[in-house]
Amino acid sequence: MSKRISLTRYLVEQQRVNGHIPAQLRLLLEVVSRACKRISFEVNKGALGGVLGAAGSENVQGEVQKKLDIIANEVLIEANEWGGHLAAMASEEMEGIYLVPNRYPQGEYLLLFDPLDGSSNIDVNVSIGTIFSVLEKPQDQRGVTVDDFLQAGAKQVAAGYCIFGPQSTLALTVGNGVAMFTLDREQGSFVLIEDGVKIPEDTKEFSINMSNMRHWDPAVRRYIDECLQGEDGPRGKNFNMRWIASMVADIHRILTRGGIFMYPWDKREPHKPGKLRLMYEANPMGWLIEQAGGAATNGRQRILEVQPTQLHERVSVIMGSKNEVERVQRYYAEYDAEQQAVSA
Ligand code: AHG
Ligand code: MN
Ligand code: MN
Question: Locate the Fructose-1-6-bisphosphatase class I N-terminal domain: which residues (predicted)?
Fold first, then answer.
């Protein structure tokens, strides 16, 4: 039988052999992966478990909550509040932060999550997922506040997602490359399927919601327009398009075979920097992408360097194969330079 490496063993090796993570972080990631396993089982029940459909409520961002948004949120809270490794949690589905009851010495970490990403796909049996990000709690004796969470993505100490698709697969980085683990449902554990995941630097596949085309800014329009011209245009090659509408599934495809994912700022709600959330969508995904050799930007700045000012802050997102992301960044720089020249 070929040697199977479980997530547990991988994490022990990251701690003991590579000295890459402290024991407390290893134990926290174990708890998060157990929560993902439970969510996977809930997702799998579908209509038989009564988990589909709307919950009849809205979250802080005014979005309709699905039953599974709430179930996944509760699973993550319940699993982590007794772990002893966390000081507090924050979630897409909760307005404020969740302080972990202080029954132990206070935990050293902060956990942020999008409990269920791709909510519009729940009821149609298309891949969805859970996204998570881990930060260190600043070292002082005060109680935890929202300000403690407002750290740039470059400060993350662990990040990942679990996609619930034909397989449930967990992708993880602790700053030492990206590893993927698929849930063996008979054995009940995540088993390593790939370590050192690498995204090709070039791609012929883009991922964007084309129905928003008329709302984009000129840099994004130029990039997509050139892709659409295919062999006959300046790129001299044909492009393919994929849009699953679950970020977790689109990013999983890009980590697997390359591509560029974009949810840019658009004119529909000009005062918002974008649709996706910085702290529990863009930051963890951006770090995974960078750790796999790709790039992640808001067009003008590296996502991991954006200093958050709010827990539920939004951001424009362009990430994936390095050369394509850099091209979009170049188009932004050229557009900005033109605008400056006009106004000078
Ligand atoms: P969530 O379900 O957590 O609110 O996230 C949905 C996000 C993301 O997963 C996806 O890429 C995007 O919204 C899809 O948006 P459109 O429906 O506008 O295409
Ligand atoms: Mn999401
Ligand atoms: Mn969500």
Answer: 6-194
Contact (Cβ atoms closer than 8 angstroms) between residue 109 and residue 66: no
**Model's pTM, two decimal places?**
0.97
Coil vs helix vs strand at 304: helix
Residue 66 φ/ψ, nearest 5 degrees: -90, 160
One domain, residues 21 and 122: yes
Whether 89 lines ligand 1, by a CB cut-off of 6 Å, is: no
* Residue ranges making up the domain that contains 251: 205-343
At residue 238, the pLDDT reads 98
Identify the pLDDT of residue 48.
Answer: 95
Q: Which residues contact 160 (CB under 8 A, 6 or more apart)?
A: 32, 131, 132, 170, 171, 172, 173, 284, 288
Which residue has the least CA distance to atom 16 on ligand 1?
Answer: 245
Distances from the Cα of 144 to the Cα of 88, 125, 150, 311, angstroms: 7, 39, 12, 14
Specify whether 263 is located in the same domain as 327.
yes
